[in-house]
């Protein structure tokens, strides 16, 4: 069963030709508009000559760590810790929407190897699932203050060399984050 995305914020390139797209997934409880506000707070208003930026909003769904309250989350979690199993059913439910978002960029002429996905917190985990499990062959993936569950299906996908080309990856993590201690 697919989950429907909320509103999409778009920052278009300055020039007429779009040569690449960055898709930025927000963290749990936030929205595309909310993470865009944070990005603008950190680096000011921004545009790129040739890059388009997409800030999608996760579906509104029950979120177990909030006692089932409705929240904008990409997938459900049994708890906010890497040691519990992933909620594979809700991870699968967002796949089609993310693939459709990427397919829209492909239809507009942006090649797959010119699309980067990334995100903050839960959005970073979704980006890792997207790049290494759902849509191999992307230009890159980034994750900010994120984690994968210890038994993540991403690790299983990475064991299979037939999954496609390696996607470059960068991860940033603060040393004051108490959820995922620095190594």
UniProtKB/TrEMBL annotation:
GO terms for molecular function: carboxylic ester hydrolase activity; palmitoyl-(protein) hydrolase activity. Keywords: Hydrolase. InterPro entries: AB_hydrolase_fold (IPR029058), LYPA1-2/EST-like (IPR050565), PLipase/COase/thioEstase (IPR003140). Its EC number is 3.1.2.22. Residues 11-182 form the Phospholipase/carboxylesterase/thioesterase domain. One of its GO terms (cellular component) is cytoplasm. Signal peptide: none annotated. Belongs to the AB hydrolase superfamily. AB hydrolase 2 family. This is palmitoyl-protein hydrolase.
